[in-house]
């Protein structure tokens, strides 16, 4: 049996999430970094805002608008994301959290799993 390493699984998750963003949202991030910590998967996506979103985000009303729209888009696909993560890790996803920074154009996604994936991989 070939056992996957933590680093390989983190890379696989990054690749799968980038593909999901391209297919579901129409464009992917410029950079993705995934970290597995105990039963938590933290994914940092950089360069996710469109030029128009960056421009709109120059006002407080625009920031609210971009954050709300992006949040609704991700939430509408959250079940797909949970299934994707469960299929990659063979562990049930318990919760999903996300936020976006309109200042940096970065999104952070956090998945909580039902088991300690880091321990399983070591």
- Largest sheet: number of strands, sense, barrel closure: 4 strands, antiparallel
- Counted up, domains total 1
Helix content: 40-55%
* CATH fold topology: Threonyl-tRNA Synthetase, Chain A, domain 2
What is the helix/strand order? HEEHHHEEH
- The CATH architecture designation is 2-Layer Sandwich
Q: C-alpha Rg, in Å? A: 15 Å
Uncertain regions: pLDDT < 50 for 5+ in a row? Answer: none
Question: Tally of extended strands?
Answer: 4
In angstroms, what separates the terminal alpha carbons?
15 Å
Q: What proportion of the residues form beta strands (DSSP E)?
A: 25-35%
* Structure class: alpha+beta
User: What is the 3D shape?
Assistant: elongated
Spatial strand arrangement across the major sheet: 1-2-4-3
Average pLDDT reading: 93
Q: Which CATH top level class fits?
A: Alpha Beta
**What's the tally of helices?**
5
Task: List the main descriptive attributes of the protein structure presented here.
single chain; 122 residues; alpha+beta; Threonyl-tRNA Synthetase, Chain A, domain 2; four-stranded antiparallel sheet; 5 helices; 49% helix
Structural account:
- This protein is α+β, with helices and mostly antiparallel strands and 122 residues long.
- It has a single domain, classed as Threonyl-tRNA Synthetase, Chain A, domain 2, CATH 3.30.980.
- The chain has five helices and four strands.
- The chain has helices spanning 6-25, 51-56, 60-76, 78-89, 117-121; strands spanning 31-37, 40-46, 93-101, 106-113.
- Strands 1-2-4-3 form a four-stranded antiparallel sheet.
- The chain starts with 5 loop residues before the first helix and ends with a helix.
């Amino acid at each position: 049996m070939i056992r996957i390493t933590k680093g390989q699984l983190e890379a696989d998750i990054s690749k799968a999430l980038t593909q999901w963003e391209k297919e579901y949202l129409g464009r992917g991030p410029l950079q993705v970094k995934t970290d597995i910590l105990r039963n938590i998967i933290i994914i940092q996506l950089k360069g996710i805002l469109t030029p128009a979103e960056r421009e709109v985000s120059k006002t407080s009303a625009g920031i609210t608008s971009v954050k709300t729209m992006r949040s609704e888009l991700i939430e509408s696909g959250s079940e797909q994301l949970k299934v994707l993560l469960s299929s990659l890790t063979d562990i049930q996803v318990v919760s999903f959290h996300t936020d976006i920074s309109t200042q940096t154009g970065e999104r952070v996604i956090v998945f909580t799993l039902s088991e300690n994936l880091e321990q399983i991989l070591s």
